[in-house]
Amino acid sequence: xxxxxxxxxxxxxxxxxxxxxxxxxxxxxxxxxxxxxxxxxxxxxxxxxxxxxxxxxxxxxxxxxxxxxxxxxxxxxxxxxxxxxxxxxxxxxxxxxxxxxxxxxxxxxxxxxxxxxxxxxxxxxxxxxxxxxxxxxxxxxxxxxxxxxxxxxxxxxxxxxxxxxxxxxxxxxxxxxxxxxxxxxxxxxxxxxxxxxxxxxxxxxxxxxxxxxxxxxxxxxxxxxxxxxxxxxxxxxxxxxxxxxxxxxxxxxxxxxxxxxxxxxxxxxxxxxxxxxxxxxxxxxxxxxxxxxxxxxxxxxxxxxxxxxxxxxxxxxxxxxxxxxxxxxxxxxxxxxxxxxxxxxxxxxxxxxxxxx
Length: 357
Description:
Layout: E1 2-7, H1 13-27, E2 31-36, H2 40-48, E3 52-53, E4 61-62, E5 65-66, H3 68-96, E6 101-105, H4 108-116, E7 121-125, H5 129-132, H6 137-140, H7 144-157, E8 163-167, E9 179-182, H8 188-192, E10 201-204, H9 213-217, E11 224-227, E12 237-239, E13 242-245, H10 249-258, E14 261-264, H11 268-276, E15 281-283, H12 290-301, E16 305-307, H13 313-321, H14 323-330, H15 339-353
Parallel strand pairs: 1-2, 1-6, 2-3, 6-7, 7-8, 8-9, 10-11, 10-14, 11-13, 14-15, 15-16
Antiparallel strand pairs: 4-5, 12-13
Helix pairs in contact: 1-2
């Protein structure tokens, strides 16, 4: 089967998840052509070779907050050249690849391609849970306007797809048909990792403008491994109890599997990996981004960790004091590999091949 696979480029979680699925599809004999935008392009090109690069929306962040006006200005400027380029890419892809199915990881260009050429579209992402499930009042309390805006935006990205596969570590009731909740899609290195109880905290923070964090961490009486705050380093930099590390996928997974807890934003991919490995999580959700606030509130509600929109040393100490409680709750989480998700995806692709989707 020929599959067009679209990956949104804002945030690396989509690219990481999609690479796992694409490897599975190609191993099964499917012919997959990738289209992607933003940071996903280089990540996927390194792993799969030729892909079609498109323009896509992106967010501007400062001090762990989405800056809405800067984001709007940035995207309007980008659209002036990006949109015409995307139209040209439509016809380039159509000339060389005629897909039997489209898979979209929250990516609109591939969805539009499927709609234009009457090809069934399967959405496979974590974001659609905002629109396609019911959420309790305690999840959206105080965020009602943000929730309604997010729901409208999410619905508009890929409406009326043939089916929606939603990866999730929490399970609210469905409110729409053609929707299946599945476990988080995990990298093979995470599936194979053996959790252990080390002494260190793992900190992952990709916003280099979030410079108040190290001063808080210096006050702790525990070792801290920090990824993301110094992106240009090539070797460990040790400053007291803090170790700044260059990004290495192998080392990161080892540190994650052996840490006492995680401090990071509430991006879905890392939260899902930490929950799978039984690691308590202190989330610092990106402000003005409803999806991260939702993830953080479900994390807290399930007892897997907690969150603070404004982090300080006292909050971190409180988190450390409750680690036994978080570990007890995480012990009840059902760890799974990717097989359940892959089986459901195979069923949907079979339906596409039979003309039933």
